[in-house]
Amino acid sequence: MQCTIRPIKATDNTRLARVLRQVLVEFGVPKQGTAYADPELDAMFETYTKSKHAYWVVECDGELLGGAGIAPLQESESHVCELQKMYFAAKARGQGLGKKMIVKLLELAKNFGFSLCYLETMPSMHAAQKLYVANGFSYIDAPMGNTGHYSCPVWMTKSLL
Fold first, then answer.
1. Percent of the chain residues past pLDDT 90, beyond the cut
2. What is the pLDDT of residue 140?
């Protein structure tokens, strides 16, 4: 399978929203208080064209299979970003794409001037948590900022310094 990681395009919106929602349903994520309910899920290209925002997608053999983004953490200090909406369809998992995506996005975050990256995830997403830990993220005891994701009880950060 030939895979590419590239910046999101406007034409990706519909396919990406479908993939992200399918992954969330697959993992039994609540539809309220998580990324599933985020209004920007249907307009990801427009959402991530703002300053200090980036969203990259994984495309394999012409099929869009997921993505991840970086953005300032809402209602937080200006040096804190959030790794957002990192979800991959099953056929894209286990191939090192998650690591490549994290490396790319954290490089962008540093270039944007962020010094701390925050993320939220679900307890059922064991492989994702293992990936985050392997890439330098550590668990924290409470949420940061105001993501609106009150149903995500696992929080992690990584220093970008």
1. 84
2. 98
For the chain, the distance separating the N- and C-terminal CA atoms, rounded to the nearest angstrom, is 35
Q: Three-class SS of residue 142?
A: coil
Residue 39 to residue 41: CA distance in whole angstroms: 5
Residue 54: CB atoms within 10 Å: 21
What Rg, from alpha-carbon coordinates, does the chain have?
14
What's the total number of domains in the chain? 1
Give the model confidence (pLDDT) of 14-57 as tens digits: 999 999 999 999 988 878 888 878 888 999 999 999 999 999 99
What is the model's pLDDT at position 159? 98
Report in angstroms the alpha-carbon separations of 100 from 25, 48, 104, 136: 24, 19, 6, 14
In sign, the C-alpha dihedral spanning 20, 10, 116, 36 is negative
Q: What is the CATH number of the domain that holds 23?
A: 3.40.630.30
- Using alpha carbons, select from 116, 51, 39 the residue that is nearest to residue 85: 39
Rounded Cα–Cα distance for residues 41 and 85 (Å)? 9
91-123 per-residue burial string, b: 16 or more CB within 10 A, e: under 16: ebbeeebbeebbebbbebbeebebebbbbbbbe
Domain of residue 27, residue span: 3-159
